[in-house]
Amino acid sequence: MIADNNEIRYLNENNSDLNIDPFVPQEENITKNQAIEQTIMMMIKNGHYAPKMIDDQFSKKVYDKFLELSDYGKLFLIQSDIDEFEKYKFSIDEEIKEGSTIFYDLVSSRIKQRISDADTFYKEALLNPFDFNGNETIELDGKKLNWAKDIDELKNRWKLSMKYRSLARFEELIEQQKKSTNKKDKDKTEDQLEIEARESVKKNMGFYFKRLNKISESDRFASYMNSICHVVDPHTDFFPPKDKQRFDEEMSGKFYGIGAVLQSEEGNCKIKSIVVGSPCWKEGHLKVGDVILKVAQQNEDPVEIAGWDIEEIVSIIRGKDGTLVTLTVKHLDGSNEEIIIKRGKVEKDETFAKSAIIKEGGNNIGYILLPEFYADFQDAGGRRCAVDMRNEIHKLKEEKVNGIIIDLRNNGGGSLQDVVEIGGLFVNKGPIVQVKSKSENAQAMAVRSNEALYDGPLVILINQASASASEILAAALQDYNRAIIMGSTSFGKGTVQRVFPIDDFFQGNKNLLPFGSLKLTLQKFYRINGGSTQLKGVTPDIKIPDLYHLIDIGERRDSNSLVWDQIAKAEYKPIVSLVDFKDLISKSNKRISSDPTFDLIEKKRVPIKKTIRKQFLFIESIEI
Amino acid sequence: MKEAKDFSKKLEDIEKSKKTLPIQNLKKDLATIQKDTTSVTKNNEWLKSIKKDPYIIEASNVVLDWIKAPKINNNGAVLNKKS
């Protein structure tokens, strides 16, 4: 999800920032899972900015979250399983305190068993021909279903689900037959097509179960620990140690892609963009908007990917350098095509600051795009966005610009020190942001010198995906009255996280290591006017309609998010502007309200609110 | 689905009829941009995306208004000294 990338970090991070004693187990034969649970809970209790009470309410939330993660579609567990789990609903808090993982162990082993049961149910369901006449309905949203009351009902669910999938495939085959010019295809009867449809579904289900069976014990436990972490707050995450093989593959760079960005939309896997210079760009047939239907490896039958998770699709499109992958895609015009692409190295699209000049009526306006507040956290001498921004402004000044636009749309954050330095390019000595740790008073992070590089007209563009560091910069320039902020209300992230190796906080049997790492919410940041950007985000001076404007995204979406609050104002003097912002704002508002594009977007956003919202939750894009 | 297609079609039509931003690269960046065809294509696509972006167009309108706005007379004007 988009939200998970929104972060803010310090340069020179080190473990002493989390000044707490390590966890020392009392019992000698503590299991690995128990040790991980105990160490993480100790880190949260003593290190998290606002740890929650571990009580019955907490327990219930973890319970619901973990069951949802374990069986989202309610296709594996049955009511008697739930009845058994029920007695732990309000006692996970006790388990956490005592250091046991009974609830997890029970659910985990039950799920494993139920997956192997379901493996036979779907095969059974596909044995005999389906009768596609008559009316039946199927609920695909697990949230709207009750748990199956017994095994028979579960079997029926699988039967219905397989029928639904087969029908969808059957209709596709009928369509293909209509278009086909091949006599052999034309002559096929409906019964033959029904058989083909079922076989194709069976094959796909085979892959699906293969993947389910690959889920490791460590992955399952991680999803339990994350159920706990996300009840504490949505940005506290547990990352299990990577399994050795996957890690080695990633490090050796053995896996290569094709250079497309995939996005899942209404269950389809769509090409969102194509990386210029990449293997699929060079091949030339793959287009933005294409829907991927099938993927085939060299000398292998194609696999239909309908209903697959995007990660799973990525995992089969990736492969060794120089090998071929065949994608069957549906183009926007409805035609299908098989495209053979040779996998190769994909250079990441650059995220560095860059600028251009708008020449309008004798005026030069500089436009700077800053996709993220990057900094090389490993290498102190590495590339930093504050240095790059300074350079861009120098270059723009050489071009004699008399106004600058900084585009922070979709900028999810990054280095905190860099934001402060970038603020210092536009305002002189003074605070940019206030940071508050758990037990200390808020500290202002400030510009130390009077070396503002640029003092002319300045507009900042933000949207809902502008988060953390972006919100700090926009808020500071707004509080100083230094810039006009335009766009839509920002994401609303007002917390600072850090990632710590859990091993360092465990003092016990070293044979149990490694434990992985924990991303922990350590601090909260506040605007210099004392308000928080948490939940509220930054409200632009000029609001421009945005397609996603009414959708509940960002920090506001999650009920476990930290609350909004306020602290004292930092000491700063707003700049006394030479021009009347109110006048500029009202002129712009007039233009926006009479602009046909924004008018269309404004009218559109109400009716599509629901559909988009549903889609948005599933929209994720991954580059391969 | 059809609704979504109609919507993008309408948006496209409106945008076609609108003015585009006269945008160009910085002189100092040209050498780096022209180092190979990939980077030239990338740059052209980037400029094309800015040209038609309604949000950037309106931001540039605000900057232009700001440039042309009458200066208020006051004392504590930090912005007064030209750097």
Structure characterization notes:
The complex is a heterodimer of chains A (624) and B (83). Chain A is an alpha+beta fold and 624 residues long. Chain A folds into 3 domains: 166 residues, no CATH class; 91 residues, Pdz3 Domain (Roll), CATH 2.30.42.10; 220 residues, 2-enoyl-CoA Hydratase, Chain A, domain 1 (Alpha-Beta Complex). Chain A is 37% helix and 18% strand. Chain A has 18 helices and 22 strands. In chain A, the strands form 6 sheets. Chain A has a 6-stranded mixed sheet with strand order 11-12-13-17-18-21. In chain A, strands 2, 15, 16, 19 and 20 form a 5-stranded antiparallel sheet that branches. In chain A, helix 5 crosses helix 6 and helix 6 packs across helix 8. Chain A is globular and about 80 Å long. Chain B is an all-alpha fold. Chain B has a domain of 40 residues. Chain B contains 4 helices and 1 strand, in the order H-E-H-H-H. The radius of gyration of chain B is 19 Å and the shape is flat. The C terminus of chain B is likely disordered.
Treating each run of at least 4 consecutive H or I residues as one helix, how many helices of chain A?
18
- Mean residue pLDDT of chain A: 86
Rg of chain A computed from alpha carbons, rounded to a whole number of angstroms:
27 Å
| Class by SSE composition of chain A | alpha+beta
Largest Cβ-defined interface:
A-B, 57 and 51 residues
CATH architecture of the largest domain in chain A: Alpha-Beta Complex
Given as residue ranges, the uncertain stretches of chain B (5+ residues, pLDDT < 50) are 76-83
